[in-house]
Amino acid sequence: MADVTKTRAVVLGGSIAGLFAARVLADAYDEVLIVDRDALIGVDGPRRSCPQGKHINGLLARGQLAMEEMFPGITEEIFADGVPTGDLAGDVRWYFKGKPIKQQDAGLTCVSASRPMLEKHIRRRTNALENVTFVEKHDILGVTTSEDKRRITGVKVQRIGTKSAEKVLSADLVVDATGRGSRTPIWLEELGYGRVEEERKKIGLGYVTQHYRLTEDPYHGDLSINPVASAALPRGAIFTKTDGGRVELTTYGLLGDHPPTDQAGLFEWLKTLSTQDIYNAVKTAEILDEPVAFRFPTTLRRRYEKMDRFPDGLLVVGDAVTCFNPVYAQGMTVSALSALTIRGHLHSGATPDPKLYFADLARDVIDPPWEMTNTVDLSFPGVEGNRTFALKVQQFFLSLTQTAASRDGDVAAAYMKTAGMVAKPESLMQPKILFKIIKAVLFGRKNQAVPRSAASPKVTALPGNNAVTEEKKAA
Fold it and tell me: What PANTHER family does the record point to (predicted)?
């Protein structure tokens, strides 16, 4: 007979969001089950249920700090597995509005791991927790409730590929981490809680990813080359060293202007970017796989915090709450911060109050990056949305900041701290930084993007290795 005094949490989805959630739940519940359609244990490559696993997935600096807080030592374990690293501001060649920004170290650790590599390490550390169990290759059929439907009491599941009957996993808490296709909105309507309000913005994003082994080094000690799309040129790319001695390219276009998947067409597309460094590197590189496409038509935010009623015993995290424009790489970091928000609501042995959780999640975790990306998305004239006077002021200030970042290293470092979610956007309004922005815009000299090989002669890094610079770049 089962010990009914034991507490159990069930996480729906073995995604990174689900793994982070399971980690914090393991500190509060006797047993944590992670249910997923895929095989998870021992899997090193992309998962079938995670199509974005074949593309670049960035973990921002704030996400790295949160991951390290939950799994002490994991960052060094990832680096020891051949993952390159560097500083987000000092070792990445960023281009905004077609101009390179000044490179200056800002203490922002990059984890340049492929999505499968990152998942592998987080999953291994999660699986090492004695009270966590993976329920693999199971479909999630629905939830069970108390008689009055005020509490979620468990999950109905069925093993894939068998004729076995469905079974119920009883739970004190269910956490939905099933991503954009989450069925929580449907379940809530069926249970009489009404429809959750949703915000969508059509951005028409499409991107293509390919991996290479380089014969020439375009990095000169840098970690990545990232020309960012702008209103004048709505095309961009991330071209980064990654694990396995490989280089990973994801190039993208907005508003239906998508990169082609034929090799010749893709190379022609790369010629149109705001830097020729990427095309010049890949045209002679060893091609390791075929170009793979992904489409992301709309951003999505489900406003659970606005619901009048919500059942006890159920929380939602990750893309199941908010799908950001993936170009800004905020998804995994927000998932990590969502887990820490859950941790903050696990106290006194009581099940978290969903209303309080969603209020904190919205205000402290989702609002800042959502507003920041909305400001950038609506700078593209073809993106539909309400361009208020306040938004236009924010866009004007962002444009000034990006111009200043191309001329002043301190501004560039401060700006990248906001992009890495380590600092809030309003930090750029501090008098010291604001003065530097104004001074750089009015009197600063333009950055000519001097290669690191000229600026820092000590660098001996080759493409794909894990070396980082021995000297910081001059501001």
Answer: THIAMINE THIAZOLE SYNTHASE
- What tokens were used for 212? 């290479």
Question: Among residues 7, 48, 14, 58, which one has the least CA distance to residue 31?
Answer: 7
Report whether 318 contacts 342 (CB < 8 A).
Answer: no
Beta-strand runs (E) in 309-404: 314-316, 322-323
| Gap between the Cα atoms of 14 and 9, Å rounded | 14
Domain ranges of the chain: 8-59+117-197+303-367, 88-109+203-298+386-475
Contact (Cβ atoms closer than 8 angstroms) between residue 295 and residue 256: no
Structure tokens, 256: 């239906």
Number of Cβ atoms within 10 Å of the Cβ of 393: 11
Asked if residue 447 lies in contact with residue 407, where contact means CB atoms within 8 angstroms, the answer is yes
Dihedrals phi, psi of 363, to nearest 5 degrees: -70, -45
Q: How many CA atoms lie within 13 A of 40 on its CB side?
A: 27
Size (the chain), residues = 475
Cα distance between residue 71 and residue 49, in whole Å: 25
Q: What is the pLDDT of residues 44-60, one digit of tens each?
A: 766 666 666 667 778 89
Q: Which amino acid is at 130?
A: E
Q: How far apart are CA 75 and CA 118, in angstroms?
A: 10
Give the integer Cα–Cα distance in Å for 310 and 74. 36
For residue 402, the SS3 value is helix
Contact 428, 434 (CB under 8 A): yes
Are 453 and 469 in contact by the 8 Å Cβ rule? The answer is no
Which DSSP letter does residue 63 get?
A: H
Question: What is the CATH topology of the domain spanning 8-59+117-197+303-367?
Answer: FAD/NAD(P)-binding domain (3.50.50)
- The CA distance from 111 to 91, in Å, is 12
Distances from the Cα of 166 to the Cα of 29, 162, 174, 242, 275, angstroms: 24, 10, 18, 42, 55
Rg (CA), the chain: 23
Q: How far is CA 296 from CA 96, 206, 208, 368, in A?
A: 22, 6, 12, 21
Architecture of domain 88-109+203-298+386-475: 2-Layer Sandwich (3.30)
Residue written as tokens 């991107």? Answer: 207
Name the pTM for this structure: 0.89
Report how far residue 53's alpha carbon sits from residue 118's, in angstroms, rounded to the nearest whole number: 10
380-431 residue pLDDT tens? 999 999 999 999 999 999 999 999 999 999 999 999 999 999 998 899 999 9
Check: CB of residue 86 under 8 Å from CB of residue 94: no
φ, ψ of residue 464 to 5 degrees: the values are: 90, -10
